[in-house]
Amino acid sequence: MSRARRYARFVRELVGLHPKLFAAAVAGAFVFALFTVASSMAIEWVIDEVVLPAFEPGGVSRSTLVAGCALIIGVGVVRATGVVMRRSFAGMTQWRVAETLSDRVSERFIRQPASWHRRQSDGQLVARAGVDVETSISALAPIPFACGTVLLIFVSAAYLLATDLVLGAVAVSIFPVLIILNVIYQHRVDAHFDNAQQALGEFSGAVHESFEAVQLVKAYGAGERETQRLSTMASKIRDARVRAVYLRGTFEAFLESIPSLTNIGLVVLGASRVQSGDLTIGQLSGFIFMFTLLVFPLRIIGYALSELPHADAGYRRVKAVLDEPLDPDPRDSIGHTHGELAVQLDGASYTYPGESSPVVHPADLLVPRGTVTAIVGATGAGKSTMVDLIGGVLPATAGTVSVTPGPTAIVFQEAFLFGGTVRDNVTVGLDVTDDQVWEALGWACADGFVRDLPDGLDTAVGERGVTLSGGQRQRIALARALVRRPALLLLDDTTSALDPATELAVLDNLRTALEHTSIVMVASRPSTIALADDVLFMAQGRILDHGKHERLMHDVPDYRELVEAFETDRAAPAGGAS
C-alpha cells in the first residue's frame, strides 16, 4: 500500500470514530477560508472607496466610512467565529478519539487471557495504551485547518487570477512548489518517525522493567549497567528524532523563505502594474494581503503532512493490538467433573508456543472432592504448569481438563498486592462484609498482624505490598482466595515464605473451615507434604507416581532422595519472612 493511501486510510479510520465533531471543525475551517478571501476583497474596497478618497477634495461620506468599518468588523467577526469553531471542535475530536482508542486498547487487554499477557512486555503494553495513542492523535488537530487551507488555495487562486492575470500567475505558480516541498519532506522523514516510535516503545518497556527490578539492581550494584543500557536505548530515540527535526528545520526554512521572496517580487511587479494603470492601489493592497495571509495556512499543510508519519507510526502500533486475534480463553476449554471428583485430567499436556517438547507430558489424574493433593518435584519438573493447567491459566495443548463445578481460586507463588488497602486486596471488588474479610484473614493466619497495622483493614500496603514482608503478602493473597469460598483451591507453593508453625496452622484452618473445598498445592516442605491425602511425584513433566507420602518414601527412591534433600535445605541456617 502506498504512503498516500495508507495515510488516507489512517485519517479516515480516526475521523470515523467521531465524524460529527470532525465535520464541525472542518465547517469552521471552511468559514475561515472563505472569509479570509472576503477580507482581502474588503481591504481592496476600503482602500479604493474610503482611504484614498479621504485624501482627495471632498473627502468621503459618513455612510461610506460606516459601511467600510462595518465591512471590516463584520468580516473579522465571522473569521474569528470560524477560528473558534474549528479549534474547539478539532480539540474535541482529538481527545474524544484518544479516549475511544485508549478504551478499546484497554478493553482488548482485558479480554485477552492470562496466557496472552504472559507473552507480552508490561512496558510495551503501557506504551500502546498511552504514548502510542497520544502519538496517533497528534495529526488530527491540524487536519481541519489543512482542509480549510485546500479550499482557501482554490478560492484565493481564482481571486488572485481574477484580480490580475500576470500577478496571479506568479503567485499561483508558487503553490505547486510548496506542495512538492511538503511531499519530499514527508517521504524523507517517514522512516525516522517509524524508528523513533519503535525505539520509544522499547525504551518504555525497559524503563518499566528497570523500576520493577529496582531492589535487585541495587542489591547487585547494577545501577551503572542499567544506566548504560537505558542511555543506549534513549540515544536511539534521540538520534531518530534529531534527524527528523533537522529535516523539519530545513523544510520550514524553505517554506518560510520562498513565500517571502515571492512577496517582494509581487510588490515590485505590482507597483509597475499600478503605474501602468492595470491595477488600482486597493487591488494591489488586497492582492498582497491575500498572498501574505496564505503563507501561514500553507505552513499548516506542511505541519499536518509532517505529523502524519509520526502519528501513523503510533497508530499502526495501536492497530497491532486491536487487530490481533483474541487468544482462546483456557477457562472455556475446562469441563466439569461429575460425582465425587474435584479434578480430572485425561491425557492433558502442555507445550509452550515455539517449543517442540512438552513441559507437561500427557497426564491422567483423578482428584477426589474434599481432599488435599500435594504436587512434589524438583525445580523444572512442571509443577507450576500443572497448577496453571488445572486453574485455566494455560490451555491444554492436548487432552482435556475438568474440575468440580463452582468457583476456582488460585494463589500464585509470587503474591501480588495492589497499592490500595488491605480490604481492597482481599475483596478485589467482591461484595463482602468486613466480618467475612476478617474471617478469611483468620483462616490465612493474617488477622493478627492486620489488627496491629495502623489502620487495620484500611491500611494502605503500598505498591505491590512493599510495606509488608513476604510472608504477610502471601497470607493476604491466600485470604483473597479464601474469602470467595472456592470449591477448588490451587496453591502454587503459596506457603513457602511462612515459618513451619504458621504454615501448619494455615493448612489446619483450611481443613476445618473449608472441609468441602478441594485443595491442590505445590509443596516443598516435608511436614506439609505429609499432611496431604495424596501426593503426585513429578519429574521432567511427567507424573511418575502418586499415593500417600509414607508409601512413596518407602517405594520410590527418587522421591525419598528429593524429600530428604528438602529436609536438608530446611535444616540449613536461613532467614525467613514471617
TrEMBL record:
GO terms for cellular component: plasma membrane. Keywords: ATP-binding, Membrane, Nucleotide-binding, Transmembrane, Transmembrane helix. InterPro entries: AAA+_ATPase (IPR003593), ABC1_TM_dom (IPR011527), ABC1_TM_sf (IPR036640), ABC_transporter-like_ATP-bd (IPR003439), ABC_transporter-like_CS (IPR017871), P-loop_NTPase (IPR027417), Type_1_exporter (IPR039421). It is found in: Cell membrane. Its main location: membrane. Residues 23-310 form the ABC transmembrane type-1 domain. SUPFAM superfamilies: ABC transporter transmembrane region, P-loop containing nucleoside triphosphate hydrolases. GO terms for molecular function: ABC-type transporter activity; ATP binding; ATP hydrolysis activity; ATPase-coupled lipid transmembrane transporter activity. Residues 343-565 form the ABC transporter domain. It comes from the Bacteria. The chain crosses the membrane at residues 21-43, 63-85, 137-159, 165-185, 284-306. It is a multi-pass membrane protein. PANTHER family: ATP-BINDING CASSETTE SUB-FAMILY B, ATP-BINDING CASSETTE SUB-FAMILY B MEMBER 6. This is ABC-type multidrug transport system fused ATPase/permease subunit. It comes from Ilumatobacter fluminis.
